[in-house]
């Protein structure tokens, strides 16, 4: 049974689930799951930096609401990947 609040508390739930699926599909062979592991780490790092900035800016909640996350990602990538 899935935790209905998982996405609220973990913005990287999709990447986490893909990593777990890869581990299950490849008998927990990390070498076979490098892409999934990398994507999960990048996601965690990104949202950690967002939370740190929100703390610095005095914004609450520290982790943005689910409905705002896509626009936050798009804004970041438009500024940093042109």
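^ Assign residues to that structure.
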């Amino acid at each position: 049974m899935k935790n209905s609040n998982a996405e609220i508390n973990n913005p990287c739930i999709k990447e986490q689930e893909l990593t777990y699926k890869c581990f299950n599909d490849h008998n927990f062979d990390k070498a076979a799951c490098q892409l999934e592991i990398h994507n999960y780490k990048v996601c965690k790092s990104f949202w950690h930096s967002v939370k740190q900035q929100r703390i610095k800016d005095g914004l609450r909640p520290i982790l943005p609401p689910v409905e705002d996350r896509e626009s936050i990602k798009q804004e970041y990538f438009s500024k940093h990947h042109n």
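The chain is about 65% helix and 0% strand.
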